[in-house]
Amino acid sequence: MSDRPNTPLLDQITRPADLKRLSDAQLTQVSQELRSETISAVSETGGHLGAGLGVVELTVALHAVFDTPKDKLIWDVSHQCYPHKILTERRDRIRTLRMKDGLSGFTKRSESPYDPFGAAHSSTSISAALGFAVARDLGGVIPEGNGDAIAVIGDGSMSAGMAFEAMNNAGHLGKRLFVILNDNEMSIAPPVGALSSYLSRIYAEEPFQDLKAVAKGAVSLLPEPFREGAKRAKDMLKGMTVGGTMFEALGFSYLGPIDGHDMDQLLPVLRTVKARATGPVLIHVLTKKGKGYAPAEAARDKGHATAKFDVVTGKQKKAPSNAPSYTSVFGDTLVKLAAQDDKICAVTAAMPDGTGLNLMAERYPSRTFDVGIAEQHGVTFSAALAAGGMKPFCAMYSTFLQRGYDQVVHDVAIQRLPVRFAIDRAGLVGADGATHAGSFDISFMTNLPGMVVMAAADEAELAHMVKTAAAYDAGPIAFRYPRGEGVGVELSEEPQVLEIGKGRIIQDGARVAILSFGTRLSEVQKAAEALSAKGITPTIADARFAKPLDRDLILDLVANHDAMISIEEGAVGGFGSHVAQLLLDEGALDHGFKYRSMVLPDTFIDQASPKDMYAVAAMNAEQIEAKVLETVGVVDLAARRG
Ligand SMILES: Cc1ncc(C[n+]2csc(CCOP(=O)(O)OP(=O)(O)O)c2C)c(N)n1
Ligand SMILES: CC(=O)[C@@H](O)[C@H](O)COP(=O)(O)O
Ligand SMILES: [Mg+2]
């Protein structure tokens, strides 16, 4: 290491092996520099700031003690991985985070060998770590080698069933495995539930300052790892919990709680477990989300996610909005309907603000339930609320509803229970990338017998669909809408109840019909304007429903046009596939009628702006225009040659 004064130590770190040459005091200095670098980078890119700031010391300590990438460091959700990326050969690209062709905002196997397991949905890390540990012990061979497996999981993510399924299995198998429980007493919103209270009680029973003093005393016995003192420190730390913990009951050794911002505690404890552990160990680390950046620490969400910002003031640089977000239209409409109907209630899985249910929670707290990160439970809970005579709105992001799919089938659809699924973040979402894209819900919901599936073309349509769902008691019903702002249409005072299975004509035309499902409608309209200059006026229809399909509307379009193109913000197997099935069943394609569908391509699309992602998917106005020209056979040869 350079002895040059004032040279940031971080400038001398390219990869974790470089940390091994530093003293403990220098590691503390690296942490400070890493925190500044993280803040500086996220101020330019926007993204998940608070979680990363909370694990800066932990990141340095883990990389200093363990031997990544041979040892497998697995970040749960991985929204806290920016400091990890800086230390693992990616500092030079850290200012491209979440951008097109830049670094992913999450861990990603294809990006780096230091990311042994990708994530972005929560609570998968313990299962993954256990899989690596078992593969190691069975002699699995991979280029980086198979060392220790370490899962870092937050208190919010620990509330999901999957984490406990993994703990249960790990405790039974008894493999050497490390779980770091990063307890910052925050999820995106303040954490909820009995587990959260339990974790607080673990250290509330002993004043934290006392524990800290004892822990410090214990670890001061450990000038070097692997000495006799290590065992004593371990025993002392373990002995601090009164009467054992639920983790011990599950077969883990429990260590802690320790202060996750104090390198004098983190380093010796990690060295101790690395040297001594034989089975599964859980290390309970207390941290602060947003640590070390006052605007994040002061924010309601502790800086969970931010737009680009000014580092000095913390002020976020957001583009002014021209229309309300779909999320807020959903939240506002639901609150209005709940005022008229006391059976309306709402369920969110740890996303009250993200789904707009914060509005419902403020106005009707006794009818609003945040179940924690527990989509499976949230869906079944909603099913039984419906069975019990309530009108539950189960509001989830499309991507997270995937986790509750068996419950949608088994508990809701088969029993024909009138759960109202409000599916937010439908379609391509932008900077969060492929893991968060809402690509599959049209397919997986329309495949279910008895499920009604709607997509809003704009924010006014969304309000109608919320009202339609509230009025529909015959079985389950779902409506989907995208992330971000509406298109700026006027919202009616009184939303309407739509007729189930009926679409609407937006524009009458000739030769070709465009049948839109969802918010591609505005792109279709832009394409139609460009086409009119070329002498083509397509008919435009908004299907509103993918299930049941508006057969009359569709067969009428077939009867009066030479060709039809459907478009939806979803993968193959959804709306277009159901339309194709109808046309086949009706023999509508037997006589040369041309039908084409525009769906998301059969690839996972990397992060970029939604517009750029839809360009990759070939679903923006220009591409719709090209599809129409191609379909009706008026291909602009000059443009093609150009
Ligand atoms: C299955 C799933 N549901 C919801 C989310 C959205 N989400 C991302 S981070 C987060 C909070 C996680 O809290 P915690 O694990 O305590 O981490 P912290 O942000 O506090 O570091 C949530 C709810 C998700 N990523 N995955
Ligand atoms: C990490 C995670 O899963 C969430 O924080 C997600 O990034 C939120 O997305 P929205 O910004 O669309 O609410
Ligand atoms: Mg947390």
Tally of distinct domains? 3
List the total number of helices.
Answer: 26
Spans of at least 5 consecutive residues with low confidence = 206-230, 232-236, 238-242, 635-642
**CATH structural fold name of the largest domain:** Rossmann fold
CATH-scheme architecture of the largest domain: 3-Layer(aba) Sandwich
- What value does the average pLDDT take? 93
- Major beta sheet, specifics? 7 strands, mixed
Helix and strand composition category = alpha/beta
Q: Give the CATH level 1 class of the largest domain.
A: Alpha Beta
Give the fraction of residues assigned to helices.
40-55%
| Beta content | 5-15%
Spatial order of the strands in the main sheet?
7-6-8-9-11-10-15
Which small compounds were modeled alongside the protein? thiamine diphosphate, 1-deoxy-D-xylulose-5-phosphate, magnesium ion
The value of Rg in angstroms is: 27 Å
Can you say what the CATH homologous superfamily of the largest domain is? Thiamin diphosphate (ThDP)-binding fold, Pyr/PP domains
Q: In angstroms, what separates the terminal alpha carbons?
A: 57 Å
Tell me the number of strands.
17
Shape, per Cα inertia axes: globular
Present the secondary structure layout.
Elements: H1 24-45, H2 50-54, H3 56-65, E1 72-75, H4 82-90, H5 125-137, E2 149-154, H6 161-173, E3 177-183, H7 194-204, H8 208-219, H9 229-239, H10 246-249, E4 253-259, H11 263-276, E5 280-286, H12 294-298, H13 326-340, E6 344-348, H14 352-355, H15 357-363, E7 368-370, H16 375-387, E8 391-397, H17 398-401, H18 405-413, E9 420-424, H19 441-446, E10 452-455, H20 459-471, E11 477-480, E12 504-507, E13 512-517, H21 521-532, E14 539-542, E15 545-547, H22 551-560, E16 563-568, H23 575-585, E17 594-598, H24 610-616, H25 621-632, H26 637-641
Bound molecules: thiamine diphosphate (TPP), 1-deoxy-D-xylulose-5-phosphate and magnesium ion.
